[in-house]
Amino acid sequence: MTTTTMSRPATTSRVAADRRNWGSTALAVFFLAVMLFPVYWMVNASLQPNGTTLETSWLPLKPDFTGYATAISEQGGNLGTSLVISLGSVALSLAIAAPAAYALSYFKVRGAGVVLFAILISQMIPGIVVANALYTAYNDLGLLNSIPGLILADSAHGIPFAILIIRAFMNGMPASVIEAARVDGAGHVRAFWSIVLPLSRNSLITAGLFTFLFAWSDFLFALTLTTTEAVRPVTLGIFQYIGAYVNDWSSVMATAVLASIPAIILLVAAQKYIAAGTTGGAVK
Amino acid sequence: MALTTDLSRATPKGKTGAGKAGKGNAIPAARRGIRQRRERLFQWLFLVPAVVYMALFFGYPVVKNVVMSFQDYTTATFFTGEAPWVGLANYATVLSSSLFSTSLLNTALFTVGSIAGQFVIGLALAIFFQRKFPLNGILRSLLLLPWLLPLIVSSAVWRWILDKDSGTLNRFLGDLGVVDTGVPWLTSTSLALIAVVGVNIWIGIPFNLTILYGGLQEIPDELYEAGSLDGATGWKAFRHITWPMLRPVVSVVLVLGVVYTLKVLDIILGLTNGGPANSTQTIATQSYALSFAEFKFGEGAALGNVLVVISLVFAVLYLRASRRAVDE
Description:
The complex is a heterodimer. Chain A is mainly alpha-helical. Chain A has helices at 2-7, 11-46, 66-107, 112-122, 127-141, 147-171, 175-183, 188-199, 201-217, 220-224, 234-243, 249-269, 271-283. Chain A has 2 domains: 2-35, no CATH class; 70-283, MetI-like fold (Orthogonal Bundle). Chain B contains 15 helices and no strands. Chain B has helices spanning 7-10, 29-69, 75-80, 89-96, 98-128, 136-142, 145-148, 151-161, 168-176, 192-218, 221-229, 234-262, 266-271, 283-292, 297-327. The longest helix of chain B has 41 residues, at 29-69. Classes of the chains: A mainly alpha, B mainly alpha.
């Protein structure tokens, strides 16, 4: 469709088309403004002075950072916990998913179909069912209220997705490159480590970004697999905030803003990877 | 299982596979067999960690949940280690409870309402973004933000927007003169479910938009050009070209939507915690409450299994529908 607009001969009609297109842009900006209003409102509210919820102004003309001071002093540790858990989950998920994706895409081992089917079925299992059984197992193993326990559980959000994304990418990788390395005497591990992984960089980044976001956003396992305040991800911190009657919304919203930072960074800095993840993961 | 794999399947997809070395006549058959076996064992090692993980974190919970649903599994079990076998008693208790019909109805309303809203608005936006205009790509990707935010963050923000006394929505409606007094969006038994569905629609629009946009992009322009020659434009083009071509993507979006919506927990717990008076209690939240608030793990497991069965029914319907589509 770009080509038809470009090849349109008359200058006047092109100007008219452009003007109409800017109209569409304006409409799109309007849709975006409606959809993102809650996000704006979160930022606006986080910058209001404490306590005056009744008269929140539409614009943060006099930004007040006491909400953030409270949020960091009360939830700073929880943000750190979330960060450690999310990074751990990314490492674990990629370490498990990348070799599996390679085996499923390149070797075509028998049972590959069964594994793929199991991955798809796993997406239908409600988290509460997993949490229910894990709670009893974690209780026996002493994994409740532990960071390794949450890293392992949170990876359940990321590993199936990461396998699908990386496998879809590796399916498009030329097999001849790997075979050349194998003929040159590289073992399976070396061919995988020094040829396949560097070539799959983009899919690894995409899978890593989403795995981070899944673990960072996890609420269910944080809620069910912790019973004390020893290990508390920020999602649970926010839930505790809004669980009681709230009279200090600016600190709640400041915590919410801080908890949204990874999503916002990923959206702005990693546009193309996000697009690859949303389309690739869901349909393939 | 790995050892019986025939070579043709184990060979990499390139024509000059790794099995090439084994074809040399100089190597005795026995040694060749060992080598192939070792090769296949090596290939399986790449898959083993993932299989073990999936077995422990998906397979085990499903099996354990089935076992627990037949046991009287309570807090006492953690001290005594005993969970007496009770047969179908947990299922009988859970299914005959008056709360079950409420949760089932709420689950149905929540799922149907959410999916309908997300799909219609997502499709409308996807069609809109088919237009070529400046900044299309960047605006479309910014629309993804509600989907990327942690669900509990979205719940917190909406809790405040929908607050009866100081919420923005009531202030806005008040300024417009639509309402006089604060509407109790989340605290009225008749409105809470509607509000929760509304928030879930907001969260799901970006996903529907992205997948449907991708599907629309796949439809070749020539079809529309040919159609316009036959007078198919506007609604007619949508009805006779877009919709039939988009149907496979639509079914994927709807089935994934149903499966994901059935198990939603974060949003409801964050917004209403199932209240007021169970008016937003779904099967998922009720299963959570049984296990982790009342510590009746056996009953929680039984209700969780009911949810799994409902999801499976949808998956089977989907598989049958897609197979029929292939057959036609």
